[in-house]
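Reviewers asked in the last cycle whether our approach scales beyond single polypeptides. To address this, we selected a multi-component target totalling 340 residues and predicted its structure end to end. The input consisted of the following lines:
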Amino acid sequence: MTTLGSAIASPWGSVLAIGSMAVVTYLCRIAGVVVMSRVRLTPRIERGLRALPGSIVLATILPVVIDNGFPALVALAAAIIAMAVTRIDIVGLLVGLGTLSVIRILG
Amino acid sequence: MSPALRPHFSTAGLRHGARAALPAFPGFIMFAVAFGTAAAQKGLSLGETLGLSAFVYAGASQMVGLEIWQQVWTPSTILTIMTVTAIVNARMILLGATLQPWLRDEPLARTTLNLFLLTEASWLVGTRYHGEGGRDVGVLLGCGIILWLVWLVATLTGFFAGALVPEPRRFGLDLVMPIFFGVMLVPLWKGAKPAQPWLVAGIVSLIVHALVPGYVFIIAGALAGVAAGMLIE
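The resulting structure, written as structure tokens, was:
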């Protein structure tokens, strides 16, 4: 334990820190694939999984956008409308960012 | 793009994926430059900074990692940074779960690399392509490789140059990630009924965000969406 302790306290400590962060992150990356390869897909589970991508997106952005208030909400709406009309992702992104900066300059 | 029913892999797919990743560049560059700058200010060496970006390769957890970074490590601080990293990155489990049917018949070595490079952005690009009928796994890998390279170069830039954009807020760049996510919601849209679970996910994430600190709201909202999808016929 003392050798382990002194190894962790040495400059090797940061290598160990980065290594352990990398390992747990990689485990998170593979866990979903590993688990799903062991689960038998019933129609119910399939329906749930079909709902997952959109659910992840909304669950990720909605709190962030609402925290940033009205300008963020308008910018998000503008980006989505531009994407729905043009179907070009970079256009949607630029319209969203442009709308946000215009509102901030005016406000 | 010709829709193929069976998953396959091609180098044309790699190029397609690299091109499709372009809209994610601004968000990646912003975040990695910010991380590189913060790491330099915190006193990390270039090797430590690049090591985090190259091997952990997950922005939010790298930023949080900086907050609890130590000059001298002990077993308990190592354990702390591991636990925090796992909590911040647990949402990736869900990304992998949606990709599993696509990657089922892939060789293990390629999937090992593909999943190492998995990020929300590459997952979004891949999910959009898959939703449009594409099954070339090369697209996912090509997107992952190019974004990883962008991440490293931008980290390096941030470490040496500091904030390149003087006022990121002025250009709306602080919100580039959520806006990119919102844009990519459009190709996922298959009508109001399949989107009902999304609404549940959004509402639950808002409630959890108001009550619990940290990133739990993403996982809670996404799982609520899955549950709603299973319940709604």
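Residues 191-233 of chain B form one domain. We regard this as preliminary and will revisit it once experimental data from Aim 1 are available.
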